[in-house]
Amino acid sequence: MTRCPGRWLACRELRLPAASAAGDNRPVNTIDRPLPPLNADERTTLESWLDFHRATLAMKCDGLDDEQAAAASVPPSGFTLTGLVQHMAEVERNWFRRVLAGEQAPPIYDPQADPRGPDGGFELAEGTTLRDALSTWRTEIDRAREQCADRELADTGRFMEQDVNLRWIYVHMIEEYARHNGHADLVRERIDGTTGV
């Protein structure tokens, strides 16, 4: 455990997988996953919990190589950690760029898919790497933060021909990550026995 800068709470140091020049995945970067503040305003609370769950997904991929991250969970399921990271990049793009900002952003992993359909990304194309999936996911997170920076929680986008506010989107994203992080816990444990929050 390390002390988080500017926070009284301890946080776990997190190493994110990154590839070396040889193309293998080696954890080389560290980030903190601080506990969300216990007594903050609504926006800070929502954004902190979303970032906590984003960091949790990165932790579940920490230290895995491409083969491990592409290992299917339990047959007949094809669910993989790389596929989950790709899916969450699609989810970030959908909710923050398409729904909130009204962008005509095509799906990332299947450009022919209907953007109004369910978020995809679970299937792995030949040559898919965990590093590339994480990079795309981080890019979508950065874009999401940009879309939210100048908006109020009550600002709306359009979903299913109805207004949906940023507050609702944040809550939905927290539950989406929480649900999938539970899946990631089980997949990671099956890969190498690693457990924990």
Concise description?
The protein contains 5 helices and 5 strands. The protein has 197 residues and is an alpha+beta fold.
Account of the protein in words:
The protein is of the alpha+beta class. It contains 5 helices and 5 strands; from the N terminus they run E-E-E-H-H-H-H-E-E-H. Strand 1 (2-3) and strand 2 form a beta hairpin. The radius of gyration is 17 Å and the shape is globular. It starts with a strand and ends in a 5-residue tail after the last helix.
Strand order of the largest sheet: 1-2-3
From the spread of the alpha carbons, the general shape counts as globular
* Biggest pleated sheet: 3 strands, antiparallel
**N-to-C CA distance:** 13 Å
> How many strand units?
5
% residues in beta strands: 5-15%
Any key phrases for this structure?
globular; 5 helices; three-stranded antiparallel beta sheet; 46% helix; alpha+beta; 197 residues; two-stranded antiparallel sheet
Write the layout of secondary structure elements.
Elements: E1 2-3, E2 10-19, E3 25-33, H1 42-61, H2 66-69, H3 81-100, H4 130-149, E4 156-159, E5 162-165, H5 166-192
